[in-house]
C-alpha cells in the first residue's frame, strides 16, 4: 500500500524541466533559462534526498502557494511574514516506515535534508539561508503524511 507524503518548502522548487547545464540554445532568454534550471535543480535535490531511502512516485508536482505564518506554523519562527511564498508537492512511497528513525515517523527524511545546499532563485523569502534547515528557529522544509 502506498503512503502519500506532502512536502512544503520555502525554496523555489518549480518543476521547469530544464536540466541542461550548458549554455541555452541561441535566442533563449539567459536569465529565464538560469532561473528555470535553478528551480529544477532544487526540485531534483529534494527528490534525490527522498530517494536515498525510498523510490518516490510523484503524485503532484510543485506549485507555489502563499501562507500566513500565524496559521501555518510548521516553519521556523524566524519567518514572520503575513504572506510567505512556499512550494508544495506530494509524493508516494510504498513504505513510509523507511523514514522512521525510532523517534519520529519521518525522522530520517528530516535528518537527510538537514544542511543540504539549495539555490536561491530570487522568488523566495529574502532572509532565507541557502541550506535546507530542520532547526525550530529556521526550519524551511516540512513533510506531512496524508
Number of E strands = 4
Form type: globular
Distance between the termini: 13 Å
**What does the radius of gyration come to?**
16 Å
What count of domains describes the coordinates?
Answer: 1
What order do the SSEs take from the amino end to the carboxyl end, as H and E? EHEEHE
Number of helices: 2
Strand order across the biggest sheet? 2-3-1-4
Low-pLDDT runs of 5+ residues are none
SSE class: alpha+beta
> How much helix, percentage-wise, in residues?
10-25%
The average pLDDT value, as a whole number, equals: 92
**Strand-residue fraction?**
15-25%
Largest sheet: 4 strands, antiparallel
In short:
20% of the residues lie in helices and 23% in strands. A four-stranded antiparallel β-sheet has the order 2-3-1-4, with helices on one face.
Description:
The protein is built from two helices and four strands; from the N terminus they run βαββαβ. The chain has one domain (3-145). It has a four-stranded antiparallel sheet with strand order 2-3-1-4, with helices on one face. 25% of the residues are buried. The longest helix has 22 residues, at 30-51. The protein is globular and about 50 Å long. The protein is of the alpha+beta class and 146 residues long. The model has no long low-confidence stretch (mean pLDDT 92). It is 20% helix and 23% strand.
Amino acid at each position: 500500500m502506498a503512503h502519500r507524503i506532502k512536502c512544503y518548502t520555502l525554496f523555489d522548487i518549480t518543476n521547469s524541466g530544464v536540466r541542461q547545464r550548458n549554455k541555452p540554445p541561441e535566442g533563449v532568454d539567459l536569465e529565464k533559462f538560469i532561473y528555470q534550471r535553478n528551480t529544477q535543480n532544487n526540485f531534483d535535490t529534494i527528490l534525490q534526498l527522498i530517494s536515498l531511502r525510498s523510490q518516490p512516485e510523484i503524485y503532484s508536482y510543485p506549485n507555489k502557494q502563499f501562507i500566513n505564518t500565524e496559521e501555518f506554523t510548521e516553519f521556523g519562527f524566524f519567518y514572520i511574514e503575513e504572506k510567505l511564498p512556499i512550494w508544495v508537492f506530494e509524493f508516494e512511497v510504498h513504505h513510509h516506515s523507511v523514514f522512521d528513525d525510532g523517534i519520529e515517523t519521518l525522522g530520517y527524511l528530516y535528518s537527510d535534508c538537514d544542511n543540504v545546499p539549495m539555490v536561491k532563485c530570487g522568488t523566495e523569502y529574502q532572509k532565507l539561508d541557502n541550506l535546507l534547515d530542520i532547526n525550530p528557529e529556521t526550519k524551511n522544509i516540512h513533510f506531512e503524511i496524508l
